[in-house]
Amino acid sequence: MHHAIRTLCLSLPLIAPLAAAELPLHDGHIHYSANAHGEVSPERALALLDAAGIARALVSSTPDDGTLTLHRLAPERIVPVLRPYRDRGDMGGWHRDPEVVEYVAARLATATAYRGLGEFHLEAADVASPQLARLIGLARDHGLFLHAHTDAAGIAALVAAAPGVRILWAHAGLGEPVTVVDAVLTHHPGLRADLSYRYDDILQGAAWPPPGAICCCATPTASCSAATPGRRRAGRNCRPSARRRGRSWPRCRRRSPPAWRTATSTPCWRAEVPAHSRERRQA
């Protein structure tokens, strides 16, 4: 996908070791939500970013307190984005609930650190919602971008509904084929996309796990072999989840999800990227 260079940043920490010293790595899609707080402290979350070589990170959370906690600890590193979810119950119907947008407006009135609104989920039919129109208005008034989790039809509708507002397309459409993503980015040159969950498209079917990959688990586990706590070498037990095989989320097999998986929305992997992928990213 030759438009990868237009993305706001690479959400998968995959970079050639030589280039890593030359190009800071920014993660464009991380959540530090309530389900992670008991397992990963804010200090540990920042240490995991260190282990993955992440210089800056775009963070949104449910609720928003997790984002602000990380930002207070590392204001130059954490780019705070305000999610319109007070809890996970808001995820499916936030665009029908006037109280959600009131919540967003109240948060914006008390904090000036935010750089965007999202990540939020919507479908093309939801774009006509009066609540989304209000959210777009808040983004325009405060100079914020929108971080939208939707398909190609939804992102096209959002771009049309929010002229002049910067938009970041979460997961580059997630399940959309690369050809569709390419066509959408070509048609909307101002649109940006993050690459969270698109690992297989970046490496174009390369062997899993990649040679030299490092699986970063927050705590030592029997199934992740070798190395030191927090940085486990990929072995036969580090493999794509069976549920998502083919468009996979790499994880270390264990009885409970590794802490980095609950702390962030992207797996903590570092590996040398095949030459064809490096060329595409530099095109």
Question: In the CATH hierarchy, what is the superfamily?
Answer: Metal-dependent hydrolases
Write down the domain tally: 1
Provide the CATH top-level class: Alpha Beta
Enter the CATH topology name.
TIM Barrel
Q: What's the average pLDDT?
A: 74
Q: β content, as a range?
A: 15-25%
Helix/strand order: HEHHEHEHEHEHEHEHEEEEHEH
Distance between the termini: 9 Å
What kind of oligomer do you see?
A: single chain
List the helices and strands and how they pair.
Elements: H1 17-20, E1 25-31, H2 34-37, H3 42-52, E2 54-60, H4 65-73, E3 78-82, H5 98-110, E4 116-121, H6 130-142, E5 145-149, H7 152-161, E6 167-169, H8 178-187, E7 192-193, H9 199-203, E8 214-215, E9 232-233, E10 238-240, E11 250-252, H10 259-263, E12 269-270, H11 275-282
Parallel strand pairs: 1-2, 2-3, 3-4, 4-5, 5-6, 6-7
Antiparallel strand pairs: 8-9, 8-12, 10-11
